Amino acid sequence: MCALLVSTMPPKVAKAPQRSAGAKAALTRLIRSYGPETPARLKLIDAFLLFLFVTGVAQFVYCVLLSDYPFNAFVAGFAATVGQFVLAMSLRIQTDPKQRSSAGDKTPERAFAEFLFASVVLHYFVVSFLG
Predict the structure, then answer these.
(1) Side-chain half-sphere of 120: how many Cα atoms within 13 Å?
(2) Rounded Cα–Cα distance for residues 86 and 45 (Å)
(3) What gap in Å lies between CA 73 and CA 66, rounded to an integer?
(4) Distance separating alpha carbons of residues 17 and 15, to the nearest angstrom
């Protein structure tokens, strides 16, 4: 009876290559459309976001692998990196011409002024946390 059940089951087919081919095509399309369709101002913000991401990962890896002494310095630095990333992402969303409807009636200059003010406030709290 078991041999009969085993022989009637359909063979398993791997579908992973189809998914990776779709992901590869999507990534290729993203890279090709990013260059000509993205304004230079947004590319600059994206480069800053990449820098903040790499800095945050480096701080976290350093804390986990080497040392977390002094811990308040790690927390302040990591909070500054994450906070600045959030503020920069907000600036990118508000200055992207394709997403103007989500920003309301704000001009890019006003969004940048708010970004600067929020960055100063964020770093004031970070320095205050350090003592």
Answers:
(1) 5
(2) 12
(3) 14
(4) 6
Nearest 10 degrees: Cα torsion 103, 105, 109, 113: -70
Q: What is the pLDDT of residue 99?
A: 81
Strand, coil or helix: what is 82?
Answer: helix
Query: Within 10 Å of residue 80's Cβ, how many Cβ atoms?
Result: 22
Contact 115, 90 (CB under 8 A): yes
Helix axes 71-95, 108-130, angle to 10 degrees: 170
Each domain of the chain, given as residue ranges in start order, spans 40-130
The string of pLDDT tens digits covering residues 29-71 is 888 888 888 899 999 999 999 999 999 999 999 999 998 788 8
Ranking 19-23, 34-38, 69-73, 106-110 by mean pLDDT, the lowest is 19-23
pLDDT at position 31, please?
87
Q: Determine whether 45 is exposed, middle or buried from the number of CB atoms within 10 Å of its CB (0-12, 13-18, 19+).
A: buried
Contact 65, 105 (CB under 8 A): no
Residue 37 to residues 47, 67, 97, 100, Cα–Cα distance (Å): 16, 43, 11, 16
Question: Distance between CA atoms of 93 and 53, rounded to whole angstroms?
Answer: 17
